[in-house]
Each structure stands twice: as C-alpha cells, then as structure tokens.
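Give me the fold.
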Amino acid sequence: HSFPTRRSSDLDPRMKEGLFMLMRLRWGGALLFAFLMALAAQEVSATPPPGYYLVWSDEFTGSSLDLSKWWCWLGPDHQATDVPQAVTVSNGCLIITCFNTNTAYYSGTVSSQGLFCYGYYEANIEWNGQPGMWSAFWMNSPNTGLYDGNPSCSGAEVDICEHRYTDTGNVDYINNQVQQAVHWDNEAVDEKTAIIGPIGTNLGAGFHTYGLLWNSANYSFYIDGSETWSTNAGLSARTGEVTLSSELENGWAGNIPANGYGNQATSTTTMVLDYVRIYAPTTTVFW
C-alpha cells in the first residue's frame, strides 16, 4: 500500500512546534557533547603554566624513532637487554615493548639528544604493564653524584613518574598508581632520596599526562594537570637528559611471568607515549 506524502506546511501547528523543538534539542545535544569531549581532551592534555613557551617536542608522527631527538640504550639492563627493536613508532605514538625469545628478555630505553634545565616537562602516557615491568618518564644529569652533598652542582635524577604493575613479589597490585621521586649524591655510596607514592587513581587505563615544573626554587609534580607533590630536596641547577624507559626488574617490580611476555610481534606489555613536550620560561634563553 502507498500513502500520500505529508509536507511540513500541512502539519498541525502543535506538531510543527514539537518537531522544531526536537531538532533544537538534537543540535543542542550534539553541540553539548562536542563541548564536553573537547573539555575532556583538554583535561588529559594539560597546558603549561603561564609564562612558559614550547621549545622542544616529539609528537611521534613518523614511522620510526627520530634519531635527531633521541638515542637508544644498548646492552644489559637489569633482567633484560635494551635493544632498538623494542622501540617503535606507529599511529602517532612511541611504543616501548618488553618481550622475550625463549629465555632471552628484551626491553627499550631512549634518552634525549639534548640536555635541558629549568622548565615544564610533560608526557602523555598509557601503561600496559605486567608483573616484572618497570616503566618511567624521568630526567638525569650526566654529573649526578659527582660532587657529593652538592646536587645543585652535580645534578640529580628526577623521576617524573614510575609505573609498576605489582610491587615486590607480586604482593601489592599498584597498576593504577605511580610514584614520583628525586635521587641525588653518589648512588653506590650514599644516595639520598625524596619520594612520594604510589599515588593516583585509575592510571592503569587509558592515557594520562605526567608533568614536572622545575625552577630555581623547587620541583613540582603533576598528574593530569593537577599538582601532586612539591619538594626542594636534591634541587639541581644542572642540565639533564629526558629518558623514557621500560625495564624488567624481577622482584621489586613483581615476578616476571613463567612464560614471559611473548615475542616482539605478540607481546602486549608496552609503554605507549602520545607526546613529550618541554616548555621553557619566557624570561630564559633556551639552553
């Protein structure tokens, strides 16, 4: 059966008004949804403090690691061997994968080609960890510990965030948290540490931003744009390199699974970075 087509001009006025209201609600809802999505994206991708400008970044838009910005670590590293094959770039992200071939385990670490000092540092990271995996976004001065008792001159290691799936011996599940720390003085003799954590909630799912604001007064740490901790302990005035690492630490980071993580093609044990950005104070000439 066929029915005559009804034009809008033929509709009852009350029906026309209802249709127009429905259209307005649909468009309004779409705009509201888009606004909320944009707001959520802004919350994940935090902005630098006022007075800072972007001086260095990697958005990982290519198909391989940009060797003008990073260099790869090579050789034994705790319970694995650092190899370039563990570091890949795909779909706008840097991916560091822990994997094994039989009883041989492999991991990846990269450090910045440049050295940096005071500024705001931020990375957007997703953790896909397993017991035994220890991943981090951190900084270290090449001179750390050189002048014992004087971190201002010799520098320090600043762990902007460290992530483990479990604690020692797989006892505590800490996948949804990270820790933040500063280490200074001679590591082998009398290393000093200031630390907070594990802290945070729901950090084991999706991307989250981790930041460090470093100036001549203190270090301030951030998660998703909110300050989590501030300290002047081990305050360095020396330049350092930015490092991204996924190491295997059997024990402190939990126990490596009996069958490992799978080979490079099948392992899902990864640290994924959407970007790394460095902002300098507008009052300071870039280092």
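The first strand starts at residue 52 and ends at 58.
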